[in-house]
């Protein structure tokens, strides 16, 4: 691959990793001005320099040897942007609905009755809405897992969606049948804890290349999962879960901004940016 395409691809890979030029310099021990000139397409680097940069970015040399991958990568980023945008919007609405749901569930568990007409249908509608919103929100992370080639993130995102669907359907059926749910809460807490620990671990896996934000999200998720697994800390776990989900919304927003149209086109050299 020749310049300026090589420089544009290096810039794209660097931004996809969430790295600044200074961070790339630290990993490959190349002068920052050299990195700037390579990304701007001003110079053609030696093969050794290219190899060093690719190793720092964890990119296979075959990506450079096959120009058609550039077009494929372009398409993958374009396809990802709508997913991230709708995941972010769904995440915000989901958090609002989840807070309403929590208040209702706590009151129901306490034995309180809602007297207004049609509450059962409203309760079922609320649960269904939460499932749809949570699915869209969590699929955003499944797509990030595909982009970053992280199998754990992809699998655990799907597992969380399936488990959440089971829990929400159970809530509705339990309400309509008038079954006591307290005895099943312990098993629900244990399974939720294991799933959240594994889901959070995927972010810690990515933190080496993606930075501090992924470490924070992963750490909060691990604490959340552990609280649920110990059951007696399930109530604090609900608080940590809320913080974890807010952090996930922020992470989705940050990834969208990195890959938003302006950033995307800059990364392909439409407006070369020297940081």
Automatic annotation (TrEMBL):
<dbReference type="Pfam" id="PF01381">
    <property type="entry name" value="HTH_3"/>
</dbReference>
<feature type="transmembrane region" description="Helical">
    <location>
        <begin position="211"/>
        <end position="232"/>
    </location>
</feature>
<keyword id="KW-1133">Transmembrane helix</keyword>
<keyword id="KW-0812">Transmembrane</keyword>
<feature type="domain" description="HTH cro/C1-type">
    <location>
        <begin position="10"/>
        <end position="64"/>
    </location>
</feature>
<feature type="transmembrane region" description="Helical">
    <location>
        <begin position="83"/>
        <end position="104"/>
    </location>
</feature>
<feature type="transmembrane region" description="Helical">
    <location>
        <begin position="151"/>
        <end position="169"/>
    </location>
</feature>
<feature type="transmembrane region" description="Helical">
    <location>
        <begin position="116"/>
        <end position="139"/>
    </location>
</feature>
<keyword id="KW-0472">Membrane</keyword>
<feature type="transmembrane region" description="Helical">
    <location>
        <begin position="181"/>
        <end position="204"/>
    </location>
</feature>
<dbReference type="InterPro" id="IPR001387">
    <property type="entry name" value="Cro/C1-type_HTH"/>
</dbReference>
<protein>
    <submittedName>
        <fullName>XRE family transcriptional regulator</fullName>
    </submittedName>
</protein>
